[in-house]
Design goal:
- By secondary structure, the chain is of the alpha+beta class.
- It folds into two domains: 2-104, Orthogonal Bundle (Peroxidase, domain 1), CATH 1.10.520; 107-175.
- Helix content is 59%, strand content 15%.
- The protein is built from eight helices and four strands.
- Strands 2-1-3-4 form a four-stranded mixed beta sheet.
- Strand 1, helix 7 (120-130) and strand 2 form a beta-alpha-beta unit.
- Helix 1 packs across helix 6.
């Protein structure tokens, strides 16, 4: 619970300093850092370690920020997280940065599950179907699951649209 509050406060403070036009680059930096930590768990463990000195963490951050080509703003933000002992919430804060940017820019993230691979024309049709329920730009991540037999299932944190054959068959069965 406390990590959610901290993540929201710090990400909101950072995002508030950016215009809508600059938010995509901030989102890319947050995602880049998350991906880097996924590929380098020892470096993430170092930053999260309560034993490592904060000044040393900031020194290590310099070449990291240069190598990943972080903006001056994002680099300074990371230094603030270190100074305020909030670096322990780094992953949650980065996830919340992406979430708040998407909310501000009306970008909606959905997972789409189909029984088999679908082509771009079908994706466009599904996007226009989803646009009946939500406004904004829609992004899909894809997953194939043979259990749904056909059709599709689209869901996000707030919405589920089940147009699968499995669900349609269940609905028909209920009527009889």
């Amino acid at each position: 619970m406390i990590k959610n509050i901290i993540a929201k406060r710090y990400s909101k403070a950072l995002i508030g300093a950016f215009s809508d036009e600059k938010l995509k680059s901030l989102e890319n930096e947050a995602k880049l850092l998350i991906n880097f930590m996924d590929k380098n768990p020892k470096i993430e463990a170092f930053f999260l370690s309560p034993i490592a000195d904060n000044e040393i963490k900031k020194e290590v951050l310099i070449p990291l920020a240069e190598g990943l080509k972080f903006s001056h703003y994002f680099h300074n933000f990371l230094k603030i997280l270190i100074d305020k002992d909030r670096i322990y919430f780094l992953r949650d804060i980065c996830d919340e940065i992406v979430n708040q940017i998407h909310n501000r820019l009306l970008i909606r993230e959905f997972e789409i599950i189909t029984a088999s691979k679908i082509d771009e024309n079908v994706v466009k049709k599904i996007k226009s179907f989803v646009n009946k329920y939500v406004s904004g730009e829609i992004h899909f991540t894809y997953k194939i699951d043979k259990k749904i037999r056909g059709g599709f299932l689209v869901f996000s944190k707030n919405l589920v649209l089940d147009a699968s054959i499995k669900n349609n068959l269940k609905n028909i069965e209920k009527k009889f």
